[in-house]
Amino acid sequence: MSARPGTDRTPDARPALGGHQDLFYTTSNTQHLPHIVRGEGIYLFDAVGTPYIDVASGAVVNNLGQGNERVLAAMAEQGRKLTFSYVRVSRHEPNRMVADRVAALAGPGYERVHLSSGGSEANEMALKFLRQYAYATGQRDRTRVISCVPSYHGATLLTMAITGEPEYEAVYDGMITFSEKIPAPLAYRTPDGISAEENARRTVDALEETILRLGPEKVLAFVIEPVGGVSTGANVPAGRFFADVREVCDRYGVYLVFDEVMTACRTGTFLAAHQWPEARPDVVVLAKGLGAGYTPLGAMLAPARMVDELAGLTGFNLSHTYNANPITCAGAVAVLDELVERDLLGNARRMGDHLRIRLEELGKNSPLVGDVRGLGLLQAVEIVADKETKATLPREVRAPDRIRELGLRHGLMLYARQQNGGRYGEWFMVAPPLVITEEEVDAMVDRIGRTLDDFTDELT
Ligand code: PLP
């Protein structure tokens, strides 16, 4: 067969695209992943009954663990009452109930809540909302968005455009317009060995320089994960970072968006934004833990002032068919009631502190642990070949894959990643369900220790 015109199959024409195993169920990608048939609490079980601790709550989703009867009953009951009613032509109580609970937990400045079906969609909504607001209020040139490298904001084309993953640019350049990127405020892997505080300051300076270069009247928003998710392995910016970012955004009228798809409910407060009150992001985006794996759900939160003004000027164009599905909303109401009544944010703080101490002990004893970082029950462990130089293991070792595979032998379901082909390091997330107990944390860390010991043996 003759080659398709315009084809170039040289290796550098094929970026790695992060090496995800996706859902096509080809023979090559179904063999080695465990097939999960059942879940209970923090455990997942495969077809022969092997239990795995869900170390990363899936992808930081299953906040309540598996099989929460209250959530399941609420969804079933709602389904019998009202299955679906379209958001553009009707309203229903479960939608109002989720919005009221989220707004109450988020506090002043986030009175209005628009639901989506997931994180990417909610990030798109946030940017469309801000663009519609800017357009309606005479700021018509504001179209440019600034975000960080590395970062992750989703899998739709717009959210890939703001995601800081250069490999995307190799594939999609010409198809989408990529946002302006500035270096993320990394605290561990800092350039030239500067301190975490200095590196955070560099990000702020880069933000201001980029705004000035683009023209302040053209910049719509700066989007950032307040604590990194898988993009940076739970990076926590140091020093005055959020106060400085707020100051720069205020100086040029740029909206600040916190992508809290992964961080909401995780860090010990409902929003990670609550940990830095000086940040006051204009818009906050949630997903993952909001539906806790029982139902696909995301949300964008904005101040009543902006939403009500835009409603009066032009109205909005934001929603998708499945937004605020009543069964989803009923599930989320029960998830949020469980979160509050069982004080799971408090448990995230208490168990997060205990987990951190245990992981740091483990890090001291393992030659492979370069860093342990995060907040609450959103932690990550960075794997290095050399603690002094922070050098990563050779690429052919496939450290994230190998750790995940060895973890399975010790009854762990791990979520391990590298970003940008390992240029920003390699890590695995430690973000178990918020219902985890101290004994379960200890059992999980013991198994992580044995997994790392096996990996060390394998490398020597
Ligand atoms: N933003 C962040 C910070 C995320 O971690 C994710 C998912 O991992 C997304 C956005 C995308 O969310 P979703 O996969 O629900 O579209």
Question: What descriptors fit this protein?
Answer:
PyrdxlP-dep_Trfase_major; 39% helix; 14 helices; seven-stranded mixed sheet; binds pyridoxal-5'-phosphate; single chain; alpha/beta; transferase; 16% strand; PyrdxlP-dep_Trfase; PyrdxlP-dep_Trfase_small; pyridoxal phosphate; 460 residues
Textual characterization of the structure:
This protein is of the alpha/beta class. The protein is built from 14 helices and 15 strands. It has helices spanning 27-30, 57-60, 69-81, 93-106, 119-136, 157-162, 166-172, 196-214, 241-252, 304-313, 326-341, 344-365, 399-409, 438-459; strands at residues 36-40, 43-46, 51-54, 112-116, 144-149, 180-183, 219-224, 255-259, 283-286, 298-302, 369-375, 378-383, 412-413, 415-418, 426-430. The strands form three sheets. Strands 4-10-9-8-7-5-6 form a seven-stranded mixed beta sheet, with helices on both faces. A four-stranded mixed beta sheet has the order 1-2-3-13. It is globular. It starts with 26 loop residues before the first helix and ends with a helix. Bound molecules: pyridoxal-5'-phosphate. Pyridoxal-5'-phosphate (PLP) is lined by residues 59, 118-120, 123, 152-155, 225, 229, 259, 261-262, 287.
